[in-house]
Amino acid sequence: MIQPITVDIEALNLPSLVPMLVAIIGALVILCIDLVTKNLHKSLYVMLTILIILIDLGTLIGYSGATRGFFDVMLMDGISILSQIIILVASGLFIILALSQQRFHEYRYPEYFALFLFMIAGFQFMVASDNLILIFVGLETASMSLYTLIAMHNRDKSTEAAIKYFTMGALAAGFFAFGSMIFYGLTGSVELGQISASLVASNFANYPIILLGVVFIIGGLGFKLSLVPFHTWAPDVYEGSSSAMAGYMSIVPKIAAFVVALRFFEIFVSADNAWVEMVLYIIVVTTMTLPNMVALVQTDVKRMLAYSSVSHAGFVMGAILVGTTQATEGLFLYWILFTFTNLGAFAMLWVNRTKNDHGFQSDHPFEKFSGLIKIAPIPATIMGLFLLSLAGIPPFSLFWGKMYLIGATVNGGYILLALIMALNSAIAAYYYLKLIVYMFLKEPREDDRIEFMGNANKPLKTVIGVSAIITVTSIIYIDPLLDMISTYVQMSGF
Question: Three-state secondary structure along 29-78?
Fold first, then answer.
């Protein structure tokens, strides 16, 4: 006689699913509202989206359930909660920018905000599981939504960017799925914890096949992290997106991929696996260095920031290679500080308006910013602060992230890597200071009609102001922030 299958509801720990369900149900509510009532003002959907994000954030901060949930595929450890908080805060700051007075095509559609919430849920699933199948589902949910959001910008470059992103993303998804299949075939499990235990117990038998699986997983994650040589899509996609969306893409998808990479490569780093460490070392160094060199010769500010974002991703990837608790703390410290600084820099590009093209070949050439201090002193000063922070100039916020991460690298025994990090920071300072020279030391163009902050209302100015204040006052909050990060990281056992 077949025994009935019984499921203990309490053992499922359903509260572990609540943060994702909030975002999914919120997206469905927006779609239902649009079905019932047409032509509502976009500000209603913006405020509704912000409310849903705040509720989602509240469920995370107040979470007190078990670490495992829903048939053990959910993993709500400290790193999962911390990364979801970063995702939601960055998403909240980004969606406020939709209140801009600029009449961008995509904000007319409620579907834009529903897709945005589906994307957030996908990223949350990615970081809240160590099950390769659920990570893949989260990755594809977020990616499909993001492709559509980019295409909805409704410009020629946006369509091109969405197609490039989709094509490369489909290839990366295949890599990730094939890598997951290899590890399932080797270990009989898709849970990273069980894969680690099985590989260690077998002393990494079938090592060539393991390396093949690692290469495929790197291909899948490398696309999301824009690691060299999987970074070629980034500048074109950033340029085709709105500046605000480009800033968002440089932050949120990467923190989700960083957490997956952290969980996956911890299997090999903790086992001192020389070949995998060597592959990671090469990727980290090339991702830091090559985009830095390309950024030096860029003539468009958005493309320069795109290449610099790739370099920053390589810098942070070094923490995963080092693999110590201090390095993991440094990863989150760096990315939290980078979130506000980089989103602020891209937002400054987004809120300026050009009445005509002035003969410029691109949207944000360096020449467009010539003499900005004389045209708009306050925006020039704010943009200068963001650039100095990205360059790692003390005492601005990202300086502390760079110092802590380089210190963790030295303490982990990677002296040469720490030196390469420092050299790349010095190289990056050149192209950030180049824009500052244009803004502060060059004369404005005589035919200039450019307005900065002219179309920015209070919510936009608030986002930029908050980012600027966090950038400048970092010395005050850096210790409490580190303590909070340390608490979450230690909860996860890293």
Answer: HHHHHHHHCCCCCHHHHHHHHHHHHHHHHHHHHCCCCCCEECCCCEECCH
